[in-house]
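Structure (tokenized):
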């Protein structure tokens, strides 16, 4: 019960990993604001939490709206008097190669993921700053970390969330607020990838890149929620606790049985070439220094098209 007395907001928690996270936080003693835009989804999870002896309220506002994000945070403050924990989990998916992606699909995904995370953090931060403490946990994806093809809007949004989180971690650290990122399903080859929003859209890509994961029909139902690793909720509960105050600005991946600490945007090598660099200089120097071992391995992408139905989930 490491979260006794804490109040948590979990966006997109009417199902999937969000539902699992909300229930885990409640099981650890937190009061929970369950958020989802789908009719009745948030209330159903809040009922589950209350039925298990926890305390929860539901709000169906959209994280992509300024008023909606504010309403979610206000619900926490008005109902429970505070907000200690914010988990930005709301998500939608639109599949497509970059040159085939409709503008509206791009805008919708960026709005829910990146804009929604920004708006909720923006609304919650003043409350946490006044309290002198707080925990924000945002979610990213293998799509961003591994640049999975056919996920342009989703991957770009998730990569943006990582950078935003690192920035927020620095801005809010002076106020006792930590900001970390969780990759809920742990990366390519993880045993729980069947529950990921990007799975049914990227299976053929995985095969083309040599990732060992069997294909699944585009219209097949998603795998059962029971496959979501318990590590997800447990990690988020730990990062939300007072004992994890030393963890800030980190990206942590999760599989059923492992955790991965990522180092995004780190410099791999440095080449000092002097002040008179020309393209001719680089042609001679680059291949035997920074370019050593690099290759453009173009995979075969069988049947990789965006004309199959996309699955949307939160």
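Design, position by position:
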């Amino acid at each position: 019960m490491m979260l006794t007395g804490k109040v948590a907001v979990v966006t997109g928690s009417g199902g999937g990993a969000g539902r699992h996270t909300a229930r885990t936080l409640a099981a650890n003693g937190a009061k929970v604001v369950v958020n989802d835009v789908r009719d009745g989804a948030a209330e159903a999870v809040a009922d589950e939490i209350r039925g298990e002896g926890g305390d929860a309220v539901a709000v169906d506002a959209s994280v992509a709206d300024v008023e909606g994000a504010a309403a979610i945070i206000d619900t926490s403050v008005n109902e429970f008097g505070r907000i200690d924990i914010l988990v930005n989990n709301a998500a939608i998916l639109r599949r497509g190669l970059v040159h085939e992606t409709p503008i509206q699909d791009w805008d919708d995904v960026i709005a829910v993921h990146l804009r929604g995370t920004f708006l909720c953090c923006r609304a919650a931060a003043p409350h946490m700053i006044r309290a002198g403490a707080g925990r924000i946990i945002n979610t990213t994806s293998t799509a961003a970390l591994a640049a999975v093809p056919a996920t342009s809007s989703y991957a770009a949004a998730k990569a943006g969330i990582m950078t935003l989180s690192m920035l927020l971690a620095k801005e809010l650290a002076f106020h006792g607020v930590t900001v970390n990122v969780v990759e809920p399903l742990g990366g390519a080859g993880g045993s729980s990838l069947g529950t990921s929003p990007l799975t049914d859209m990227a299976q053929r890509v995985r095969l083309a890149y040599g990732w060992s994961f069997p294909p699944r029909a585009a219209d097949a139902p998603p795998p059962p929620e029971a496959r979501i690793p318990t590590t997800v909720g447990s990690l988020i509960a730990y990062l939300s606790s007072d004992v994890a105050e030393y963890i800030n600005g980190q990206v942590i991946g999760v599989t059923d049985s492992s955790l991965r600490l990522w180092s995004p945007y780190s410099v791999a090598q440095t080449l000092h070439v002097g002040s008179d660099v020309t393209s001719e200089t680089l042609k001679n120097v680059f291949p035997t220094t920074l370019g050593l071992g690099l290759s453009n391995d173009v995979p075969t992408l069988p049947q990789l098209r965006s004309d199959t139905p996309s699955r949307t989930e939160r």
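Reviewer-requested clarification: Residues 89 and 157 are 13 Å apart (CA to CA). The chain is about 40% helix and 10% strand.
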